[in-house]
Each structure stands twice: as structure tokens, then as C-alpha cells.
């Protein structure tokens, strides 16, 4: 058994806290529309890093909805910087982001932390002034937590997903079940 496998086993046998804490979001909401500029300001947030697919719109919807335009406008009017960060390809992210006049990162390789840290540097903000919003534990929450940001998990807009995301959802259900059993989370699916 390799060194990493032994460490992983040791952490899980201790109750899993060190490992599973990276999957635990700071907050859970039903939709991005519950995340208002006033609430963000109360938290001291000046920047938002948000996922695209199934967070802002359904994964198979090309353009932003009028409600998303309004949400982005409200954030901008309150001097809250926003960047969309997606594992999706350039054309998908560009076509969605440009009409919103939003900064974006495509092929971000979440949950790796490089894209998150690069966006924070571009925003010129401290880690405690930025929140990561997304619908997946395996990419958005894990990546945001590993990079040192607060995270908000939103309920996916639709229940259907692309092939890779379906695998992630299966893993998420197992992690959520374990965290619920340990009393780490209280919300329902």
C-alpha cells in the first residue's frame, strides 16, 4: 500500500474530518437568486467566482436568462466583481459570458485550484472577500475550499447532466449521505 493510500485510510478511519471537510460548503441555497448583494456585503464579500452549467442556467441552455442578467446587474451595481469559471470549452463559456460583460475562465480543470487563485489575483481581492458558488461538490466546492475560499452550494437547476457530471453526482450522493449520517449537514437534497 502506497504512502498516500495509507494516509487516506488513516484519515477516513479517524472519522474522515480532514478529508471530507473539503467537500463541506459554507452555505447551501436552492438558487443563486437567494444570494443577494446585501447578503454578500454582510459576509464581507466583494467578489464572486461562479460556476456556469446547472448553477446559472441548465447545462444545455446556451444563453443567460433575463433573471441572470438582472442578478449580474445587481452585483455589478453593488461593486461586487464576478467571474464565471467553468470546466466547459471556450465557445460555450464565451457565448454565455460576453453578453453579461462578465469575466470568464474556460477549461478551468476544477477542482484543481490554479484557476480559482488566478481569478482572485485578477480581482485584486483577499481570499476572505471572495465566495465560490456552484452546484457540484466534486468540482466547485472541493476546488473553492482547497483554494481557501468560502463556498456556497446551489441545488442544480436541472436533474440531467453530461456524462462526466453524472459520475460526479453519484460520488456526491455518497459523500452527502456520509456527511448527513455524521451530522455535518442538515439540509435535504
From TrEMBL:
Pfam families xrefs: Hydrolase_like
Gene3D superfamilies named among the record's database cross-references: HAD superfamily/HAD-like (3.40.50.1000)
InterPro entries referenced in this protein's UniProt entry, alphabetically: HAD-like_sf, HAD-SF_hydro_IA, HAD-SF_hydro_IIIA, HAD_sf, PGPP1/Gep4
Top-level division of the source organism's lineage: Bacteria
Entries under SUPFAM superfamilies matching the protein: HAD-like
Protein name per UniProt: YqeG family HAD IIIA-type phosphatase
Provenance organism: Gracilibacillus marinus
Source lineage: Bacteria, Bacillati, Bacillota, Bacilli, Bacillales
